[in-house]
Amino acid sequence: MNLARKNLLGIVSAVMLALPALSCSDSLISPNGARLRPGAASRTELPLGAFSWLTPLGTGTASPSTFDATGSSAVSVCVWAGSACSGAPIAHFSTTPAPGVGTLTTNTTVGQFEATLSLLGSSFTTRKTYRISAVRGTTEIGAVLFDAVRGRWALTRADGSLAPLLVANELPIRFHVGLVPLAQIKINEVESSGGTPDDWIELYNAGGAAVDLSGFVFKDNDDSHNFTIPAGTSIAPGAYLVFDTGSGANQFNFGLGAPDAARLFDPFGRLVDSYSWTAHAATTYGRCPSGTGAFVTTTSSTKGTANDCSVPVKVNEVESDDGNNPDWIELYNPGALAVDLSGFVLKDNDDTHNFTIPAGTTIPAGGFLAFDALGFGLGSADAARLFGPGGTLIDLFAWTAHAATTYGRCPNGTGAFLTTTRATKGTPNDCSSPITVRVNEVESDDGSNPDWIEVVNTGSSPVDLSGFVLKDNDDTHTFMIPAGTTIASHAFLAFDALGFGLGSADAARLFTPTGTLVDSYTWAAHAATTYGRCPDGAGDFVTTVSATKGVANACPGAPPTAAPWPGGPDIVTVDALNQFSSNLSGLIYEIGTGGAPDVLWAARNGPGSIYRMIFDTENSIWIPDPSNGWSAGKGLHYPDDTGEPDSEDLTFTTGSSAGMYVATERNNSDNGVSRPSILRFDVTGTGTTLTATNEWNLTADLPPLLANSGIEGITWVPDAFLISQGFFDVAAGHLYNPAEYANHGGGLFFIGVEGTGVIYVYALNHTTNGFKQITSISAGFPAGVMALQFDRELGQLWATCDDTCGGLSDVFVIDTMPGSPTFGRLKLTHIFSRPTGMGNFNNEGFAFTPNTLCVGGQKPAFWSDDSNDAGHSIRRGTIPCVKFP
Hints:
Layout: H1 3-10, E1 28-29, E2 35-36, E3 51-53, E4 74-80, E5 85-94, E6 102-103, E7 105-107, E8 112-118, E9 129-136, E10 139-149, E11 154-157, E12 162-164, E13 170-177, E14 185-191, E15 200-205, E16 211-212, E17 217-219, E18 226-228, E19 234-235, E20 240-244, E21 260-265, E22 271-277, E23 285-288, E24 294-297, E25 314-319, E26 328-332, E27 339-340, E28 345-347, E29 354-356, E30 362-363, E31 368-371, E32 382-387, E33 393-399, E34 407-410, E35 416-419, E36 437-443, E37 452-457, E38 463-464, E39 469-471, E40 478-480, E41 486-487, E42 492-495, E43 506-511, E44 517-523, E45 531-534, E46 540-543, E47 562-563, E48 572-573, E49 584-590, E50 599-605, E51 608-616, E52 621-624, E53 634-637, E54 645-652, E55 660-667, E56 674-681, E57 689-691, E58 694-697, E59 711-718, H2 719-724, E60 728-729, E61 734-735, E62 747-753, E63 758-764, E64 771-778, E65 787-791, E66 796-800, E67 809-814, E68 826-832, E69 843-848, E70 858-865, E71 874-880
Parallel strand pairs: 5-6, 47-68, 53-57
Antiparallel strand pairs: 1-2, 1-10, 3-13, 4-5, 4-9, 7-8, 8-13, 9-10, 10-11, 11-12, 14-15, 14-23, 15-20, 16-19, 17-18, 17-21, 21-22, 23-24, 25-26, 25-34, 26-31, 27-30, 28-29, 28-32, 32-33, 34-35, 36-37, 36-45, 37-42, 38-41, 39-40, 39-43, 43-44, 45-46, 48-71, 49-50, 50-51, 51-52, 51-53, 54-55, ...
C-alpha cells in the first residue's frame, strides 16, 4: 500500500486541520482529497492558520514565535490521478530519515519546515499533476497539487497560475505549522470502583465554544489500554460527557484500578489533561469546583452533572487563650465519609494569617481533628475560618472575647457555639455540667507497690483530663495529669506514679486545671483491700472485696452468691492413665466436618505444645491423634522460630483451619521474665512443630505481672453477636463499631489474667500485630481467671478459676437492658460451685460442646487438670443446653 493511501486511511478518525489560502487563485486539497476554495471552512474545530504552505507553493507566513517544531514528521510527493495517488511516492522526506530517504528539516529561526524536490530526477515527468502532502505521524495535515513545466523554469499550480522557481530545476518545499492551543477539556470526575453502572470518567468543556472530540484518546496508566472517542462526538461549552465500561458508543473496554490514572490525549498524541490516584475513592474523585479546581474525594457521585463539592466539615471548637500553649482550632466531620483536607486553609479574621493543611490529611467520618501549629495566634476578638483548596469558605465562627474554657458547638457539628465545660481538643465537646469524673477507688497500703488513685467517668462523652490535679490531704503533694490524657465514657483510669504516698489517715482529691475541687474521699485508716465506690461512680465508699485497679469495683454483696453446679453431679475421667504427667492447661472443642471426627484441642504449658485429641470409642477416652505429626503433640515456637511459649489456653475463630490462637504468659526458655502474649498458629500442616504466624505481646498494655501470673484464658467472640447485643466500646466511648479496627479477624478476643483477676477485651490487627484494648471487667474471684469459654449459641461467657478459689465458675452476658448503668457491658449473672463429683483439682482449662450433642437438655463439658491429680488430666461432666435466666 502506498504512503499516500496509508495516510488517507490513517486519518479516518482524526481531527482534520484546515488549510490556509495560498492566493486568490490557488486550489487546495483537504486531507481527504476534496478540493477546498481558499478560506473555506474545514470540518475541524482547530483555528485556521495552524498549517500554511509558504512560497513558492503558497503565500502563507511563518512565525518563529508560534512554530510547532514537532508539527510534522514527513513530506511525500506522488503522481495525482484525480482522486488518489498513482503508484508509490516519487519522493519522500522525513525528519528521521532512513538511508536513501530525503531529509525534512526544521528551521526554528524562521519558523518553517524545509525540503528540496529535484525536478530533474528520472521519476519526475512533466505534463502531470503532482501532489505534495505533509503528515504528522500517520495523519495528513496539509496537501497541495501542482503541475511542472520543464524548460519554463516555473511551477504551474493546479489552477493554472505560474510561480517562479527559486532555484532552477529545484522546488523548495516550505511550510509552517502553528502551535495549536490544547482544547479546554478537563477530566472532571472519576469512578474507579464500580459505580453506576461501572467504572467511568467524566469530561467537562471549560472553554467558550463546542469542541469536536473525534479522535481524542482516553487511557488509564497503561498505554496499551486506550479508547478512541468516536467520530462525530462533540461537547458543548460548560457541558459534561461521560465514558464508562457499560454499553454503547461511549464504552471503553478496560477497568480502572487502584492505583491508576485517567489521561486524555488529543488526536496528535498531546496530553490534554490527566489525574492519577493511589487508592479507590469512597465516592468518586472530582474537581472542586468543576472543571477548574483540584481533585478531591467528592461528597457524593454526580455522574454527568456538576460535582458535589459540598464539604460537611465544621469548625467545632476553638481555644484562643491557652496560656503558654498554642491556640488551636478543632474541626469535626459529621458526614458518613472521610474527607480529604489536603490543601484546605485555616484563617483567623486576617486574610494574611493562613495555615494550609498538609497533603494527605484526612478526617474520618464522625472524627475530630485539631490544628495548633497555625503560625498565628487567636485573639480575644477574632474568628476561625475554614476554606476549601479553591478559596471557597466552608465554615466559620467569630467571637468578641476569650472563652473561660473554649468555644464549642453543642451538640458537635450542628449546634450553636457555647462556652464548653472544659477543653476537649480532638475529642467530642464537653457540653455537660457538672464534670462527670469522680474519684472511684483508692489504694493506700499496697506493700512494696505504689499507692494509687482511680477515677471513673460517669458521663456519656469522653473527658479530657489534661492539667487536672490529684492531691492527698496536703496541698504541697500534687500530681498533674499529663496533657493528652482522656478518659472514655464509663471508663476507669488509675494513677500510681503520684510522687507521694497515701497515709493511713489521708485523702484523695481531684481538681480542675483552674483549681476547682471536683471530687474527694477521706479515710481514717488503711483499708484491708481498697476503698471504692459501690456502685461505681455513684455509691458510697466501702471496703472492697478485692483491689480492681483500672476496672469496675469488686463490691461486697454485689455479685450473685455461688449456686450449685447447674449440670449433672457426676464426673468421669476421659484420658488414659498418666497420658499427661502434668501441665495440661487449656481446652476447646471442635465439631468435625465432612466425616472427620470431633476434636478436643488441648494446650500444654510445659513443654509448650498443642494436642489434637480424638475420641477412642473402644476405650471411651480421648487420645492424641496419631496422624499428621500429632501423636505426641506439636511443640510451639515464637514467630522467629525460637523459644518455647508457655501455652495456657487456646481458641479459634471460624474453625481451627483458620488459625489457632494460644494464650501464653512467658517463654519457658526464659521463664523468669513475664511475656504475656497471644500467638496465632497454622495447625493444618504435617510437621511436628509449629511456628507462630503472629504475636501480640501485651506487656506494655497490662499491669506489671509476675512471670507465672500472666494470661491464662482466651476465647473469641464474633462481631455479629457483639453488634446484635449493643456491645459498648469503652475505649472509644460509643457502641462497638468493627469498622474502626482494621484487619481484626471478624471478632474480639477476651483474655483472662491470673495476676489481676481481670477479663480484658482486645481487637487484634492481623497485619501489623497491633492491638487495642476495648474494655475490661473484674471476674470477682479471690484468685485469678484461669480459663475462658464463650458459648456461641447461648451468648454466655464462662470464666473459671482453679483450686485456689475452690473451682468457681462465673457466667457473664452483655447487658441489653436500656437505661441500665451497665448497658452494653459485661454483666455477671451467675456464680456456680464446682460439680459435687469433682474434687478441688487444679483445673486450668474448661470447654464444652455445641448444642448438637445435647442429650436430655445437657451437653458434655470438659476440664483439664494442670496437676494430673490421681493420674488423670481430662474429666467430663455436663452443663445445660439452655441460657440461664
